[in-house]
Amino acid sequence: MKRFFVCMVVCVISVLPLFAGGGQGQSSGGAASSGKTEIRAAWWGDTGRHELYNRIVDEFQAANPDVVVAREPTSWNDYWDKLSVQAAGGNAPDFMGMHPQYSADYIPRGVCEPLDAYIADKTLSTDGWAQGTIDTGKYDGKVYMMAMGVTFSVSFVNTGLFKELGVTPPAFDWTWEDARRIGLQVRAAFDRQGKRTSWMFNDISTSINSWRYFIRQHGRELYDAKGDIGAQVSDVEEWFTMFKEFRDAGIVPDAATATEYFNATLEDSLFSRDKILILWVPVNQYKLYSTTFPNKEVSIIRMQTAPGRSVGEFPEGAHFAVNSRAAPEKKRAAVRLMNFWLNDERSLKIYGLDQGVPGNLKVGEVIIPALDQYQLKIVEVVNALSKIGTPTIYPPTGASEIDLLFRNFGEQVQFNQKTPAAAAREFYDQAVAIRARAGK
User: Fold this and answer.
1) Cβ-count burial of 33 within 10 angstroms (0-12 exposed, 13-18 middle, 19+ buried)?
2) Interval 350-372 mean pLDDT
């Protein structure tokens, strides 16, 4: 198993160089009167993740009694909305989650602290890290982020509910046509039971990251090497049209339901309520979903594919960063938290594979005996997808604005306020304009 784990990590890392609760601290505002340094730490997730991360921070505080950490956990969507406002006001958290999907909206604006000096003085260790993994956090030659882990996006399947419906679930390598065909079978089965408010899978038509997989299946990237829009108007129209057809056929939820549950917590999601059978999600969340819903029989398959076309998968992963505008003692304390979180055996035994394969390969070997059945499944799937996934290009400045634009036009199509063709053209023209302004 140890050799399998290390080989899997090396396989993932080999493509990366190609990439461009408890113990809560009080509100921070300088060094504490007790002489301790108070820092704010923010991350995204659901209740289970918050509990897990609080345990890690508690361990850090026990090992570093001179630091007090105030925690600011939120959901994924709320996190980025909140961080955008905080960063604009010069009040970003001292220690924060960061993602390559949005990093270009923060790093060039001086929100994130360069970490090279801390690496040089060993406050932040890179021992045991592959250079390719370190490079995923680089921008213009400097390290601004450290990877939380390496993962892939997949589909979770409520296999048990498929069996109850008498419908054969999709295979690991399923296609968009399979989604249509099996979706109609599921619709008919639900209708026979009088369950009009249940569907095959969630409506991901407003998610630009989901569409990004679809574009790559067409052999194109969302952004090219210069940061220009690499997709075509037809890519947008085809995506919106396909999901309109899914919506009209009752394969995905209606617009009102999709919007209502867009920001739902894991515990309150359509998947948790058995209202959908398949959910698109990063594979590292498999244990979280499986343990939150122990009575569900959950399996993992790829996102829908396009036969005869390119592979959509690419290695993904969130990162940690430090607020460059924080006081020097806060920056160093935040870096110490980062180092403990990503490199200390005490942390990683708790952290496990929550955000994917650990960046520190040496410590990764140590935690192998502690991996449970869910984590071993994550390793298996990451190993399989790392063999077919190909590098992608990180989004440039203005990406978060374009993401929101895509979501807004997607919602207008959902509610039949615009046709897929009209929404596609308007989105494309405005996205090009955003990048043109950002490039000046």
Assistant:
1) exposed
2) 85
